[in-house]
Amino acid sequence: MSRFLRPEIDFDPDKIVLCANCSTCRWTCTSYEEFQTEAMFAGGRLRLLRSYVEKNLPIDDDFVRTVYACSTCEQCVERCPIKLPYVEIIEDVRKKLVELGKGPYGRLHLMGDFVQKVRNVFGEDPQTRGDWIQEGTETSTDSEWGYFVGCTASFKRKEIADSTLRMLNYFGIKPQILGPDEFCCCSPLIRTGQLERQVLEEAEDGSVQDLGTLKVEEVIMHNIEQMEARGIKKVIFSCSGCYRTVTLDWPKFYRATHGILPFSTQHLTQFLALKVRKGELKWKGSFDERVTYHDPCHLGRHVGIFDAPREVIKSIPGIDFVEMERSRENAKCCGAGGGFKAGFGDNAVNVAADRIKQALEVGATTLISSCVFCKLNFLDGVKKRDVSINVLNIEDLFVDLMGLR
Amino acid sequence: MTELAKPDVKKLTDLEWVTDSMVDRLSASGDTTGIPYYHYRWKKNWLADYVALPRSKEQVSSLLKLASDRRIPVVPRGGGTCYYGSASPTRGGIVLDTKILNQVLEVNEQEMWVHVQAGAVWEVLDIYLRKRGLTLCVAPQSAVASTLAGWLAIGGKAGIGSPKYGTALENISEMTVVRPNGEIDTVSGEDMNVFYGTSGIAGVVTSMKLRVRPIPEMEGGLIFVFSSLQSALEAVERICKLKHKPVYLRMTDREYEWRVAGGLPPQITGSVFVLVTFDGKKLDVEDSLKAAKGIFELTGAQDLGEEYFRKSWADRFIVEMKLKLEVPTLSMQNIWIPVSNIAPITERMYSIARKYRINSCFYLVMGMGDMARLCLFAPSDHRHWTHFMAGKTMLHRLAKLGYRHGGELYTLGLQNTVYLKKFQPEDYRRFQEVRQKWDPNGIMNPDKLTHSNMTYRRMNLMFTMNGNFRRVLSILRRAKNLLQVPRQEDA
Ligand code: SF4
Ligand code: SF4
After folding, report:
1. Which ligand is nearest to the CA of A67?
2. Of A211, A403, B115, B277, which has the fewest beta carbons less than 10 angstroms from its beta carbon?
3. How many domains does chain B divide into?
4. Is A55 in Cβ contact with B37 (below 8 Å)?
């Protein structure tokens, strides 16, 4: 009975009336470009949300799918005349769907299940998390520098982790690496609303085993405690998603009980830009290519770092740098973030292929990014959609030019 | 054989471009008005049964033929940016979303036109043209989201470029249309009139040849603030008579500017803001700017400077929406009126707002000649019912006043159709004839232009009662304004 009096999805009435329904955010939206229906952009989703709440509509599968078919790229927030905090709202809706047992969408729950079981989103053996470290590179146990590697570079794109370490070594830094003690930064879980939920696993004999309650806060606290215990004061990131989450999300969990984070955060592009500015970076080779830069949403729009990567790229001898039609604040998303790749794999690859086309349109032969996840999706775009371009991250380029590999 | 007549198509949803999922129906049933179920008194069934996303004019044709045969209502939908429910279903049926029909078919640089599918978004088309050294002559204020056919359907005549290049229709030389019975036709000249300002009742426009021009050599403008409406109006009238017409001329009042700018610096003391933009040959633009500056300065208006102009000009496509900043519910009415006649309306607006203790502000965009779109706003919060309804009442009273001063409603759509019979009887008859001729089954966008589920008498009574009630509350000091207003000492 109470269902008829109370909406199934309860939401702050002040927030659901914010959207002006102007649709300014529609044609640039990552998910609208892919699905092209009125539900699949920020304004459409907010109209739906309001209707479901005000009309007490039962949450159906299509609603859940629509809420999750968004890469949280924030292109809509950039376009919005009233700068409506759409991504915050949609993450909140996802959280509520998870609480109701209706979310996350599709197989996105696997990421949460794996973090609960093995502390990484890929279900890989946590003991092998540091296995990417190669001979000839140096780490330490007492440096004030830490390198937070993240799940993707640790298990799927190990060359990125290796390049970053070599780059740090080049500048005389032997960072501390947590290895098996590094847990997921929780970006994919926060973005998909899996902040706290019970994790159940079906055994082969059909019985269901309770794996306990996944609590993102505990995972984050573990990471912070590990770094604090090792005396790490400065943390460097190669993954824009990790960087965004540690810089903007972790403090939300930590501040109330502990105050400010015990370390500062720096994306590797900021680190390199500083070296360029100080004149400490003397390039050894040249890169005689036409190059363009893709702003990762998590680094650009989310945190506001647009200039540092460009400064670094433009300082490389021989480079012919061009901007794509949509760049900086208006950059098109690569399609990987916000659980979009994990939930809508094919669509995410289409988005990446489209972005690569934009790079080709300006005559670029190399597409540079500075996010592990973007690179992963672009490489899928190249492989699966018959587009051809050289995809590199800044650290890859650094290591190649400096002859560090 | 039309696609829908194929043996394996038993029901609409067998077509991969038609959906009946709740999320698609709900999201395609609403527009800028707010949410689909608003204005329920104007609607019998606010929720579409299907949403169709055709990819060709042939698909549009097969859908309209089926709908016509089976008498299923069809609501053509472009960007869904109209404030008056033009694209909202009132009897369920099919929402025909035209936005996938958005391809450029041909660019003719000799004759300066582009042949383009009519579901294209104005801004996207302009980006495409600019890469080729061309640009649009006119575009609506909502160009960031609205479609070509959408602006045509609401009778677009006051946008960017209008003072110089005319209405939406005047910039189209030919259209491909699908009639309500499914017939595909190409029309030009006067035959295009039935598609202008008629909310799709004569059929669906699927492509058009649109006038374009080379990117102008120079673009420049000014923004001044005036101490009175009278002096601002005098200046505007003189600007409109300059040899080179502006491409854009906008007038806003203090509360409007204060809201969209998120506050005003104390040195800005006037009450009416006028922004004017010219483009074209460098020498002409420089001449026009000099002349405009002279006209403005003669009235003692204050120059807000280049930076303020640049920012305001850059915001031209989103400025109406910026008003929603910190305003939960925005009601508005648009009146198409000679600019010299607006003073009694804005004065009455302030006086009603004072009496009702509600917010009010206005904004005006010039069209051709001396005609302008006067946009009156009642910022409110619909959860505070008497405040919200008092705002609606104010707009209703001002609409009536607008008619008395030689104006008419700019957009008709769903909610304004109710005024037609009483205040625009000739237009009402014309719309009836169009409907009768092209859509005798009445399937195309029902309850727009030719019929309203609400009677004028009932609406008028409702607003009179609401207004009186708010007035009593106000006298008893039980009505208070919800939203912050610019402080008097700022003025
Ligand atoms: S965050 Fe990105 S994908 Fe999601 S609605 Fe906004 S623009 Fe679209
Ligand atoms: S741009 Fe902002 S206000 Fe407009 S529809 Fe999108 S989210 Fe809503």
Report:
1. 1
2. A403
3. 4
4. yes
Determine whether the interchain pair A23/B28 forms a contact, defined as Cβ–Cβ distance below 8 Å.
no
Element of type H or E holding A147? strand A145-148
The distance of A195 to chain B (nearest Cα, Å) reads 26
In this complex, do B23 and A48 lie within 8 Å of one another by their Cβ atoms? yes
Choose the CATH number for A279-401 among 3.40.190.10, 3.80.10.10, 3.30.465.10, 3.40.50.1860: 3.40.50.1860
Question: Which atom of ligand 1 sits closest to the CA of residue A41?
Answer: 5
Q: What is the pLDDT of residue A222?
A: 97
Q: Whose CA is nearest to atom 7 of ligand 2?
A: A43
Give contacts of A54 with chain B, Cβ < 8 Å. Answer: 35, 37
User: Are residue B393 and residue B468 in the same domain, yes or no?
Assistant: yes
Q: Residue B447: what residue type? A: D
ipTM: 0.94
Query: What is the tens place of the pLDDT at every residue in B12-39?
Result: 888 899 999 999 999 999 888 767 777 7
Q: Give the residue on B whose Cα is nearest the Cα of A18.
A: B328
Q: Which residue has the tokens 């495409």?
A: B128
- Within 8 A by CB and 6+ apart from A184, the residues are A115, A119, A120, A121, A150, A151, A219
Among residues B87, B91, B118, B99, the alpha carbon closest in space to that of B411 is found at: B87
In contact, A51 and B36? CB cutoff 8 Å: yes
Q: Which CATH superfamily is domain A2-99 in?
A: Alpha-helical ferredoxin (1.10.1060.10)
Encoded amino acid at B260, one letter = V
pLDDT in tens, B123-153: 999 999 999 999 999 999 999 999 999 999 9
The share of chain A scoring above pLDDT 90, in percent, equals 88
Taking 60 as the threshold, does the pLDDT of residue A2 lie above it?
Answer: no
